[in-house]
Write a structure and sequence with these properties.
mainly alpha, 2 domains
Length: 208
Amino acid sequence: MTQALPSQPRKMPTQQRSRERVERILAVATDLIAERGSDAVRMSDIAEGAGVSIGSLYQYFPDKSAVIRTLAERSNEMALACVERIMGQVQDLPGLAQALQQVVDEYYGMFQDYPVTRDIWFATQADKALRNIDAEDTAAHVAQFEGVMLRIGVPAGKTEVKSYALLAMNLLAAAVRMAIVLPADEAARVLEGFKTMAARDLLARFGA
């Protein structure tokens, strides 16, 4: 029998009772990480909080990294869906500049509304086995942004569009993640500065 790779959740169950158990495990893990930080949370803590045996927990998640991976991937899916909704309404370059600014606000708002998202992201950065999650998420956002630029007919070669999308999405993520560790007033100034800079550069670079 093939074993699950380290830090990968085991195959998700299909039976309703088992699915509910997995969701309970993830909910408890989320609460514990938000309360203590990921480093202080043990698998035994998650099992106890979820009301399952440690053996049952390991049936679904071989280690804590697998739990964090699942939480991170869910968080990334939520963010990607949000960006897709915003970018799907873009019809022209000025609209793309406005959408880029809205993405900044909503991305930052997600961290504010769900503070545990910060802890989960920090946990993925601290675990070598999980760092690829962030790279995969960034690649998905880059492809999404690049696709919108090409759809609205940005007048540039495909290579330049791809390079710009890569730079823009990485800078956006960096700006937001810097802001989430700053006091609210300073974070607001940082984000407003980035939004102004990003919109101005996009219009100057690709405007007719």
